[in-house]
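Thread amino acids onto this structure.
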């Protein structure tokens, strides 16, 4: 009997010493209520479900032991909703009609600060289309409009390129670097530049190596559409309903 108690005590002690993650989520998107969410991570280039839960009255919760820090995505069915880092600590997810955001731990704070900056640049680029229409209505010559807006678009594109490259380089040694490298690099020269300065640990990452092989073999930077980067499209009731109906994201 003493041996049994000793074993139980040892197991409890080991569990208490292990890293733990605790994710508390809330949503104001009514259609999410009653849906099952999955926390999926990449293990050996395979997408694996780490945890799952149901949304009840706008609340959901994941928790468990952690053997390493994971780059993960929150899924509803087969549809990815948003990225996050599963790491030690208390993580907070908020989903509403305006944005999706993850806070509470160091890497998630770094990730979403970057995504906010990236989304602002994307919004500036999208705004150029509205300005084109307005300038036409104002009677400005179309060639002049194209010259002006093309120059502005080039500046924004360069800012986005620098933002992504600097972020990847600053995070070569953690899970954020490989994720943004694979999802957001936009040209072969950008990929080659980053790989030329990356440490061996980054180059040996299986997902990075597979992506780089694809780039060198085909000259294309992406095999698939990038995962949702949170904030670029509002996750509203209509979007969630489309996902539930198996139609993917709303356009």
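Threaded sequence (251 positions):
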């Amino acid at each position: 009997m003493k041996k049994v108690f000793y074993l139980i005590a040892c197991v409890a002690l080991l569990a208490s010493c292990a890293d733990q993650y605790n994710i508390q989520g809330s949503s104001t998107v009514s259609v999410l209520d009653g849906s099952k969410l999955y926390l999926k991570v990449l293990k050996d280039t395979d997408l694996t479900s780490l945890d799952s839960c149901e949304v009840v009255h706008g609340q959901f919760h994941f928790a468990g032991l952690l053997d390493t820090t994971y780059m993960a995505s929150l899924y509803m069915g087969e549809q990815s909703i948003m990225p996050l880092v599963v790491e030690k600590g208390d993580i907070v997810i908020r989903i509403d009609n305006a944005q999706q955001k993850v806070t509470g731990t160091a890497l998630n704070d770094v990730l979403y600060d970057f995504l906010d900056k990236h989304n602002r640049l994307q919004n500036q680029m999208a705004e150029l289309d509205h300005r084109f229409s307005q300038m036409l209505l104002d009677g400005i010559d179309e060639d002049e409009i194209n010259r002006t807006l093309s120059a502005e678009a080039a500046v924004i594109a360069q800012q986005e390129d620098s933002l992504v490259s600097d972020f990847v380089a600053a995070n070569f040694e953690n899970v954020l670097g490989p994720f943004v490298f694979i999802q957001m690099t936009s040209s072969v020269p950008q990929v080659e530049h980053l790989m030329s300065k990356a440490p061996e640990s980054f180059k040996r990452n299986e997902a990075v190596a597979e992506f780089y092989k694809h780039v060198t073999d085909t000259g294309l930077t992406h095999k698939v559409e990038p995962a949702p980067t949170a904030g670029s499209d509002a996750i509203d009731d209509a979007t969630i309903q489309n996902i539930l109906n198996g139609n993917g994201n709303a356009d």
